Amino acid sequence: MKSNTNNKSEEKITKATELLWKIWWFSFYLIIVPSLIAVVGFFIYFFVGKDLYVSIGLSVITFMFVLLFFFKSFDKYRNNPFFLNKKNNLSARINILFLITILSLIVTPIFVILTPGEDIYFELLPLISFILLYNIVYYYFFFQPIDNFDFTESRYKHESPFSEWIKQPYNFIVLFNYVIHILFLSYTFDTKISWLFPLISNVIFYLISRLTTIKNIKRLTASNIDEKSFLRELTVYKKKFINIILTLNFTLIIQLPFVITLGFIFSGVDYQVLELITISFLALIFLSFYFKIRLYVSSYYNKLLRRFEINEHE
């Protein structure tokens, strides 16, 4: 009885110690270090620019970037880590891609609300925050590849070099998404609502991506799935992922001329009917490009899926 009591006491002490260490590392990596760097960054920004509001805005962006960056250091203390688990959480790829973008765009309206009447302070803030925070997406996707799955160890291989990683369409689309958002935010920053359209688009397509891939992800993470079914489902997941991001990007491209036009109209610029027709024609050209690229992507992955079907019948 005494030995059982001692064992239970030791287990409780061990669990309590592990919990305290986890709380400490959580506080250190996700609160203390990001906060200290943000405070130092604030004084540096204020020393250089002599502007309180801009310094606060940039220090908040710095805090978010450092917070997300140091999450990998804390990740090893979690029960189900993102970066160290043997079988990648495929839904996390969607979450990180969209939520990082949404987070970077939400920063602007918060500071606009806090500083009403200021016209020029935060025009470039969406672009700056997106450029900085989106690096977390690259970081995660590179360390959590889904290129090759090792069935003997039941995990994805993490040894692929960058030259091979970037050739995969579902990885390259992440770079394409980055470029399109930068172009949109760069051309529309002086409209003062450049963050609004990509924010709404990302929220909508985030919900679409979660709803359309949930069943696919459940099949991929099932313990009883065989190798052929796994590879087929993974190909379907990649196809859905690319098509969703591609549609999001072309939604922004098609919106771009109209957003710029609306910005000039609100600033007092008058457009002739012929100019408005030309802008609409430009949007139709972008739309035709979208359908062509979408057709190419679908045909590419449909060929791969047909190969799986042929192999299953053999």
Brief sketch in words of this structure:
By secondary structure, the chain is mainly α.
Q: Can you characterise this structure?
A:
The chain contains 10 helices and 2 strands, in the order H-H-H-H-H-E-E-H-H-H-H-H. It is an all-alpha fold. The longest helix is centred in the first third of the chain and has 48 residues, at 2-49. The mean pLDDT is 78.
Which terms summarize this structure?
314 residues; 2 domains; flat
Per-chain topology:
Blueprint: H1 2-49, H2 52-75, H3 90-114, H4 125-133, H5 135-143, E1 149-150, E2 155-156, H6 162-165, H7 169-188, H8 196-220, H9 227-266, H10 273-313
Antiparallel strand pairs: 1-2
Helix pairs in contact: 1-2, 2-3, 2-4, 3-4, 3-5, 3-8, 4-7, 7-9, 8-9, 9-10
Number of domains: 2
- What is the mean pLDDT? 78
Order of neighbouring strands in the sheet with most strands: 1-2
Approximate helicity band: over 70%
Q: What is the count of β-strands?
A: 2
The main sheet comes to:
2 strands, antiparallel
Structural class: mainly alpha
Figure out the total of helices: 10
Instruction: Choose one word for the global shape.
Output: flat
Radius of gyration over all CA atoms, rounded: 24 Å
How much of the residues is beta strand, in percent? under 5%
Straight-line N-to-C gap: 62 Å
Helix and strand string, N-terminal first? HHHHHEEHHHHH
Low-confidence stretches: none
